[in-house]
Amino acid sequence: MNILFFAALREQLGCTHCDIDLPLPASLATVRAALIQYFPQQAEQLAQGRALAAINQTLINDEDTLINSNDEVAFFPPVTGG
Amino acid sequence: MSAENASNSQHSIAVQQADFDVAHEYAELRNDNRSDGAVVFFTGLVREMNQGSQVSGLTLEHYPGMTEKALQQIVADACSRWPVNRVRLIHRVGTLAISDQIVFVGVSSSHREAAFDACYYIMDYLKNRAPFWKKEVTSDGERWVEALDKDKQALDKWQ
């Protein structure tokens, strides 16, 4: 699964995206946990409540939401536009 | 980067590097518009003091695709809530200097209450839901702007 990163989180992780192998479909919580395992130094920044998640370019609050192989997944910090 | 317009011909939504002309946007809200008695617009500017530091400029990052989609959803939500006829929304990305324009939200409606409320609603939701991130250049170096609780709490008034 390909996961995109933006802004401060992208800089902290040192990459714009990463590939993670997971049995799919997987819940958002499972994907977040896998990311934290992959980037243990950034566990705090990736935690629920710190990093927002979008699936197919829509913000997702429910951590039980299932992610399938064709879904576009992104993690990023709270937004600061306007 | 090219401007992308929303599908609804009455509304225009753009994410762009280029500056915008408020007089042009206002004219677009007024031209050939016999039904609306009110236009309300807001512009957001880069200011030199933020979160306790002197700012000399900023860079705005966004999530291409999702940003446009989020803005369209916010405008659609505002239009389902108030009798709004035209909405023009522009948000800039890239490098900006002090006093530069960041965002424009313009709304036309038959009456002022709907125009005021819809404009305010769109800005409040944009600040919480649209994927833009500001990185400021300050006297202490570069830093990402922190999201503020007050912006989150601003949504309470629309519940």
Automatic annotation (TrEMBL), chain A:
> Which Pfam families does the UniProt record give?
ThiS (PF02597)
Cytoplasm: is it a keyword of this entry? Answer: no
UniProt superkingdom: Bacteria
InterPro entries xref list: Beta-grasp_dom_sf (IPR012675), MOCS2A (IPR044672), Mopterin_synth/thiamin_S_b (IPR016155), ThiS/MoaD-like (IPR003749)
Keywords (A to Z) from UniProt: Nucleotide-binding
Which family does the record assign? Answer: Belongs to the MoaD family.
| Protein name in UniProt | Molybdopterin synthase sulfur carrier subunit
Say which species the protein is native to.
Answer: Thalassolituus hydrocarboniclasticus
From TrEMBL, chain B:
| Pathway listed | Cofactor biosynthesis; molybdopterin biosynthesis
InterPro entries recorded: MoaE_sf (IPR036563), Mopterin_biosynth_MoaE (IPR003448)
MF GO annotations: molybdopterin synthase activity
Q: What is its EC number?
A: 2.8.1.12
Show the Gene3D superfamilies listed in the entry: Molybdopterin biosynthesis MoaE subunit
Q: Which CDD domains match?
A: MoaE
Q: Which key words are in the record? A: Molybdenum cofactor biosynthesis, Transferase
Give a Pfam family name.
MoaE
Q: Family assignment?
A: Belongs to the MoaE family.
Instruction: Give the protein's recorded name.
Output: Molybdopterin synthase catalytic subunit
Originating species: Thalassolituus hydrocarboniclasticus
Taxonomy of origin reads: Bacteria, Pseudomonadati, Pseudomonadota, Gammaproteobacteria, Oceanospirillales
